[in-house]
Amino acid sequence: MGTGGQPQERKTTYREAMREALREALRSDDRVFLMGEDVGRYGGCFGVSLGLLEEFGPERVRDTPLSESAFVGAGIGAALAGMRPIVEIMTVNFSLLALDQILNNAATLLHMSGGQLPVPLVIRMTTGAGRQLAAQHSHSLEGWYAHIPGIRVLAPATIEDARHMLAPALADPDPVLIFEHGSLYNASGELAPSTAPVDLDHAAIRRPGTDISLITYGGSLPKALAAADELSTEGISAEVIDLRTLRPLDDAAITSSVARTHRVVVVDEAWRTGSLAAEVSARIAERSLYELDAPVQRVCSAEVPIPYARRLEEAALPQTADIVAAAHRVVD
Known about the structure:
By secondary structure, the chain is α/β, with parallel strands linked by helices.
């Protein structure tokens, strides 16, 4: 406790913040349960649910067979029946095995039933590369899901968002997909003692600036902030925008930032072609073309399956130096 009995910030990690969010959800609502591969006895493939089985029991923390289509479908059925399931899919690559359930059922039932069948389902999954897990465990496909009407897509990039995004996601009547970048789990920092839920409708300015906007999300946020630090030593003031919610995008935040800086670099770990970066760039062209003093630059992954070898993996991914170089192309 701080002076006057006020709680202080405390050191924690992204993984622990997510675990706290799950624990709070399970404690506060008997309808909430967690299900997925290895979420129980193993504690989650990435350790997020460690200890929750012992605390809440196998009815609330359910290990499932190795069938993404089956357990996502079970989650949809439970949501239709009034429960509040949290389904964990090990990695985004494996979510493709449940794409039929997500697209053809979870995202469409409310519309097809004339508003009679909401699906209040939360699906969590790890995304992204940088950990030498090779091509079947390392891609960033959240932009694919951001293409689908009927769902909300979240990408918590900070410890605060990892801690506080889950509660409003569970309160949403629509399906919510939460993409947790694997490189962030060990990230540590101070967590404020706030209990206020995150505003899921708005992007966040992580660093104000006047010369250029660096627009990003998820695991690329630390790289964008590092690039902004480097640019500041050269007298370039970079504003860093964390999109946070990928569907629906916060158009107002993007437009306002462009109006302040007049130059933009979009950083997206997905492939460049058909990417979320392409969507953001198109919206800037539609809404803010005459605010731009230079063409929008995109920094994305190389259009190859993510390599296993560390140096090749690093070369394929957007890095801080790539962001700095793109910034110079529009500022110089």
